[in-house]
Amino acid sequence: MSVSFVIDPLDFVQNTGIHHGKIPVDALVRLHDFLFDKEGELIYQISGQFDKHEKPGLHLEIKGKIHLICQRCLGKLVHTVDLQTFLVLAKTEAELDQADEDDSADAILSTPSMDVVSLIEDEIILSLPISSCHTEGECSAQELESIKDSLTSKTQSAHPFAALLALKKTN
Description:
It contains 5 helices and 7 strands. It is α+β, with helices and mostly antiparallel strands and 171 residues long. The protein folds into 2 domains: 6-134, no CATH class; 135-171. It has a 5-stranded mixed beta sheet with strand order 2-3-4-5-6. The protein has a two-stranded antiparallel sheet with strand order 1-7. The chain is elongated.
């Protein structure tokens, strides 16, 4: 399933464009490697506006839930996506380099035909945690570890050669 929404970002800003919609998680192919499954959908809104320095930019909001892979137990981890970002549009590579020096704003190169869905996917991937794990006490790997620890302590409480000692006493 291919979802696409292409804009000319500078024209979109000039016309104070606004667009919203839903994207099925299944359509975000580059995100699949991070996911437990491809269920759900994300809601987005993109609007073209000028920042306080009168530079053109895109305001992007993304909301929804995705299922990541827990790095401890390899189980399903529900991750809430709630992103709001403003991306300054650079018209040239030189302008982009200059904007990159300013850490206060994110900038992207404006191309005549920008795929918004691809931009949304980029922002989601950039927002993901480095190592996704359940919170303390929620991970099934921790439950298995505690069961294993309790079994280990029970078997270690009996001396490993107790059976031999009992056999020796009977003979």
